[in-house]
Design brief:
Strand content: 5-15%
CATH architecture of one domain: 2-Layer Sandwich
Number of strands: 5
CATH superfamily of one domain: ATPase, nucleotide binding domain
Order of helices and strands: EEHEHHEHHEHH
Largest sheet: 3 strands, mixed
Radius of gyration: 20 Å
Structural class: mainly alpha
CATH topology of one domain: Nucleotidyltransferase, domain 5
CATH class of one domain: Alpha Beta
Strand order of the largest sheet: 3-4-5
Length: 184
């Protein structure tokens, strides 16, 4: 499903909102559902929501002065779903390299241990010596980057609405309260 062919926007807060600005009381939402909405459109919206959440994390790092020029994906979804990784690259507007190693966290720990033990003078040299490289690189598609920027603004607006509509509720909002908030 092309993102331009669907207006469905999702919040993937089914376990509360995570980083940044965690709030476990918040709940997920879907916007713009119709009788004609297909399962692939809902799936795409949920994937996009996960990617938008990642974009918020990147934006937070950058607002704190930490530049994020690229992303390295490891394991599971990174290796098994080109669709998710390409969507993430487009949403973040950054290349994503997929590590070859099946044990990237352990390999990274070994690199730092090798530096600490004096085997390598710095992490960059340890990476060059011990790293296994990248299997794939996902490059942002400029057309999709622009499309996702507009959809990201909608995601943010939906998030602000849900957060304000549920402010002060520590338990799930009753259907009547939700209806009243959306019709007010």
């Amino acid at each position: 499903v092309d993102p331009a062919e669907s207006s469905v926007i999702a919040l993937d807060w089914v376990n509360g909102r995570r980083t940044p600005d965690a709030n476990q009381a918040l709940k997920g939402a879907l916007l713009n559902l119709t009788m004609g909405t297909s399962a692939p459109q809902v799936f795409r919206a949920l994937v996009e929501a996960i990617c938008y959440g990642s974009k918020q994390i990147v934006e937070r790092f950058e607002s704190e002065g930490i530049a994020i020029k690229q992303v390295i994906g490891i394991g599971g979804v990174a290796k098994k779903s080109a669709f998710v990784m390409q969507t993430l690259a487009d949403v973040l507007d950054r290349p994503i390299k997929i590590a070859v190693s099946e044990q990237a966290p352990a390999l990274g720990a070994a690199m730092y241990a090798a530096v600490a033990a004096g085997i390598y003078p710095d992490v960059l040299r340890a990476q060059k010596a011990l790293g296994s490289g990248f299997a794939e690189t996902y490059t942002p598609n400029p057309t999709r980057v622009a499309d996702y920027a507009a959809r990201y603004a909608q995601y943010q607006a939906l998030g602000q609405f849900v957060e304000s509509a549920t402010a002060g509720h520590s338990e799930p909002v009753a259907e009547t309260e939700t209806l009243a908030a959306t019709t007010a």
